[in-house]
Amino acid sequence: MTGRKLRGPLRLTSANRCANLRLPTNHASPDVRRNSQLASVTKSSYFYDEFVNKPRMDRLTQPEEDALRALWRTGPAFVKDALAALPAPAPAPPYTTLASTLRNLARKGYAEAEKLGNSYRFRALVSAEDYQRRSLGGLVGEHFRGSYKELVSFFAREEKVSAADLREIIRLIETQNPE
After folding, report:
1. Hey, which of 11, 25, 46, 56 has its CA 20 to 30 A from 97?
2. What sign results for the dihedral spanned by CA atoms 161, 165, 170, 172?
3. Are 151 and 140 in contact (CB under 8 A)?
4. What is the tens place of the pLDDT at every residue in 21-47?
5. 50, 39 in Cβ contact below 8 A?
6. Model pTM score
7. What are the structural domains, with CATH classification, of the chain?
8. How far is 173 from 168, CA to CA, in rounded Å?
9. Please, which residues have CB within 8 angstroms of residue 101's CB and are 6 or more apart in sequence?
């Protein structure tokens, strides 16, 4: 390989490999690309808050949401306790399936797994309110261009919200933000 001489120990990171091979940085690992993108973002911007201060959380599947709701109901729980706390109308998944689902929640950052003996006790790391806020914010951002007004007008057009409901929403807004 031609190029510059390396001094000191060589650390084989994807950024070094790209620099040494003169590859564009988009061949680097996603972490390296993400960090280089973050370096160009100012600390006062919305994106800095979203991507640096708040870790990005993956979307949850329906079984993962059900398992997370079970953890909110029970508090820290073993798999069998979470299995008992799942909603009754739907058939309960097998023990091993729920265990895998809870491990996925821990991997995605929504729960924490604490090893006790031969089993794990899971605890929700995200509150129900915070999850609801993030989910709704993602939905509004994705489908309604970030506008809650668009969301409400969509439901009004679809006749999913009545005039009485809208008056109640306006009353709630006015009592929370007196001018």
Report:
1. 56
2. negative
3. yes
4. 444 444 444 444 444 444 443 443 333
5. no
6. 0.59
7. 14-53 (no CATH), 62-124 (1.10.10.10), 128-176 (no CATH)
8. 9
9. 63, 64, 67, 93
